[in-house]
Design a protein that fits this description.
two-stranded parallel ribbon; alpha/beta; 10 helices; five-stranded mixed β-sheet
């Protein structure tokens, strides 16, 4: 990300989780030595957690701390590669929609779908290179059971599952059961139930490299791979409502996935959203 247009004007705050057990201390120390030598940003701050919070705990506490201190933030995990225009798009969108309560977040990733507009809104929130404000993160509900109960009470599970195209309700149910600890399924549900919008680019500014088969039980898949945007994405005024045509294109993409491939992608998303 240091190659991004605005990197030298950006503060980089890195959260380094503690080891899962004593055997991991050497590897954690190696990572922290690397982190301390990162260059190319306005300011570097490395926050070294003494204990292992796990990804969900680290994301939730880290996002909360940063938005309370700075009012807004851009979030990236360590298995994401960005276009050189990622930071410019994110910062322009954060400025443009700062006072629009209906807009809860900005996403840098979009599915490999052709024919999308330059930017568009979908209901809910996402997790592969995203940004929000303190006012947006305030709606986050950590209690998955409360979210699931409301989805069922309001008969929204089918719509929540992208009109039946993706098993988000199952992911939320398994989070409640302790089968995953996903923070992002709760973030998506929180934003969805609040009827808040996320802005997406028509060309992806983020590529996820975690689908290479290295994850436990997941296998590999390239169906979520994207070509990174080779030119800036323009942030301009568009209607503050979900783009029904873009939603249908994304739904069609999800429904083209074969059951076995869909299982691998769900597994991949669970890992990314853990």
């Amino acid at each position: 990300m240091a190659a991004n247009d605005l990197a030298q004007e950006s503060d980089l705050i890195v959260f380094s989780d503690g080891p899962k057990d004593d055997r991991d201390w050497d590897r954690v120390a190696e990572v922290r030595r690397y982190l301390g030598n990162i260059e190319g940003f306005h300011r570097l701050e490395v926050i070294e957690r003494p204990e292992n919070l796990g990804l969900a705990g680290s994301i939730i506490t880290g996002v909360t701390e940063v938005v309370e201190a700075h009012g807004r933030l851009i979030v990236l995990e360590d298995d994401l590669v960005t276009s050189p225009y990622f930071l410019r798009y994110m910062n322009e969108a954060l400025d443009f929609y700062e006072d629009q309560e209906q807009v809860v977040s900005i996403s840098g990733y979009v599915y490999p779908v052709a024919g999308l507009p330059e930017t568009f809104f979908l209901l809910g929130a996402d997790c592969w290179g995203w940004a929000t404000w303190q006012r947006g993160w305030r709606i986050f509900e950590a209690d998955g059971q409360k979210l699931l109960d409301r989805l069922r009470r309001e008969n929204l599970t089918e719509v929540f599952d992208f009109d039946g195209a993706f098993a988000y309700t199952r992911m939320l149910t398994e989070q409640i059961q302790g089968k995953n600890s996903s923070w992002a399924i709760r973030w998506y549900a929180s934003a969805f139930l609040a009827r808040r919008l996320t802005l997406y680019p028509g060309r992806s500014l983020v590529h996820h490299i975690g689908g290479d088969g290295s994850g436990t039980h997941c296998g590999s898949t390239s169906r979520l791979d994207v070509e990174l945007a080779d030119r800036p994405v323009a942030v301009e005024e568009i209607p503050l409502t979900e783009n029904s045509q873009a939603r249908e294109k994304v739904r069609e993409f999800l429904t083209t996935l074969k059951p076995s491939l869909l299982e691998r992608i769900i597994c991949l998303v669970k890992r990314a959203w853990r």
